Each structure stands twice: as C-alpha cells, then as structure tokens.
Amino acid sequence: MIRRSKICRAEMVDRISILPDEVLHLILSYLETKLAVQTCVLSKRWRYLWTGISTLDFDESSFSDDSSFEEFLNHVLLHRDHSKAICQFKMSYGNIEDVDITKSVIDFFVEHGRGIQDIVLSSNNIERDFLPHSYWNLLHSWDSLKILTLEDISINANADYEFVSLITLHLSYCHLWNDDVGIDDLLNGSFKITAPQLKEFRMSFIDYEEIDPDFKMILSFPKLISFCFEGERMMPVSFSQKPVLQNLNVDYCPWDYIHFINVFGAIGGAKFVTLSYRTINALSKFAGFLKGKQSPFSGIEELKIIIRSLVDDKFSFTVPSSVLTFLRISFPSNRIKFVYKENKNVDDEEDI
C-alpha cells in the first residue's frame, strides 16, 4: 500500500513536471515561498523552478526561530532569478524594526524590486512596533508600486505620508501613535496621507489612544472612487478635495457618532452604498442628530445591507425612515438588498 502510494505521487509529479516553466512558476507563486522552495527536492526538473516565481511570501511564524527565518530570507533574495519579474512581495514577521532583516529587504527592493506592484507588510509583534523610516522613504518614491497593504503595524500619526503612484491602500489593524511621546499621551497635530492616483482606500479597525480635540486625519485622494471603513472607533477625518465616490462600504459600531456622521459629510456621495446591519441601527439611533444634517448623498443607485449572522426564515427588517431620508432614498423606488454573510462569505442575497 505504501509503495503504491509513492508511485501515485511520483506519477502526479511527473504529469505536472511536463508543464512549461511559466505555468509551473505561476502555480508555485500561489504557495508560501518556504513551501515553493521545498519543491526543489522533488527532482532535478524542480531544483531551480522556485527561483522564477512571481510572488514572494515570507512568514516568520512558519520558522522555529528568528535566525532561521533571516537565513531563509537572505537565501531566497540572493539566489532567485533576478531576470524574472516580481508581482507581489508579502512579509509577516514579529519585529518589523529588525535592523538586519530591514537592511536585507530594502537592499533587495533597491536592486531588484523596482518592478513590484503589490506589497503586503504585517507584524506579529503585539508590542508597539513602528515601520522603519527606510521603508517609508522608499515607498514614498516608488513609481511602480500600485497596491500597499499594512497590517498590525504601528504608524507615527504626527507625520505626512505621500505616495506618488499608489492606486490601492489598505490599513488593517494598524496602531497610530505619536512617535515622540509616550503611548498614553493624546494624538495631536495631524495625520496626512497624500496619494494623487489613489482610487481605493480601506481602513479596518484602526487602533489609537485618546485624541486631542484638534487632531485630524487629512486625506488627499482627488481620484478616489472606493472608500471602505470597518471598525468601532472613528477619528476626525477630512478630505482636502471632496471625492465623488462610486462605492462606499461602512461597517461601524460607533462610540463617537459625531465623527462617524461627519465622515459621510466629507464625501460627495456614492452610487453604490454598502452598510452593515449594525451601521443602519446606529444611524437610526441618531435620528435627531441626522434631522439637522444635510444629506451628502444625491444619487444612490443601490443600497446593500450586510447581515453578518445567521437569520431564520421569519427575519424581517425595515430601514428606518430617518435613515432613508439621510441617504436620500425614496423607498421603494430605489433598489435595496439584504446580503447575508457568514464569516464574510456571501451565503444568500435577497431583494427587499
């Protein structure tokens, strides 16, 4: 039985091995880089295939210790085929400020990575861990970089950030601090991001301590068409140029409803609006506050309401009139949908 199993695996490898290198490179690019490199033991045919993969994905958690991870990282960066383009670079490790790892990655970016269009950086460190200035300096001027995702990384909030070519920016579970003060002090000044080409911006569960009354996040995205916000805290947000969106997606359970409502006023409306069920409920609780506010919306073509928990067959929901008025929707002439989701996978969709 064991021998037969080995023969079947060998036959499967042989069938895959006859594919062109370009196809095998694509297949290996879907694997974490550690697994892709391990395919070199399959046969002589596979020995160097990993060097041409278009995605580099490094995860420190799959290594026994920091030194093993650093050794593997340096091996891959040194021995990959530098004539092959890299489409995406992903790295997750505990200490994002590690000097040796940072130098290795930055040197690689400068020498061989200028064609990379998609970068994902995340930290597994629960402590305060700032992204080093050497990264910011490079990302700022990177012409080819189109997509940037930062996850679980601390960012100095009292600074200005500019990205010349970014089209998509995602900030997920990032921590905003003032780099020059203690973590218990108020955020003060302003946190400004400028990206003249940006079309999609997502903020998900941004964490921060208390903020000074004058603190503000200033976004300069003149070409923005898609804005997504998820979380339970909302800081003051303003746009230097009011964007007219195509898509607005909000999943928010507010502590500070004034900042929440003001974000709606900071945009120039949206055609396709997606709000979570809890966001609709929150808006309905602020009916008195909404009544005195001018609606920022003028032409919603479709409203989706996300339900993120299981519901029974008798479930029903009517969007409160105060919310419909704020959104400038004349029910039922506009199309409103419930979208049922469990674990962020769409299970069903139903018009109401």
UniProtKB/TrEMBL annotation:
Organism from which the protein derives: Senna tora
Domain F-box: from-to ranges: 13-49
Gene3D superfamilies per record: 1.20.1280.50, Ribonuclease Inhibitor (3.80.10.10)
Alphabetical list of InterPro entries matching this protein: F-box-like_dom_sf, F-box_AtFBL13-like, F-box_dom, F-box_SCFL_complex_component, LRR_dom_sf
Entry superkingdom: Eukaryota
Name used for this protein in its record: F-box/LRR-repeat protein 25-like
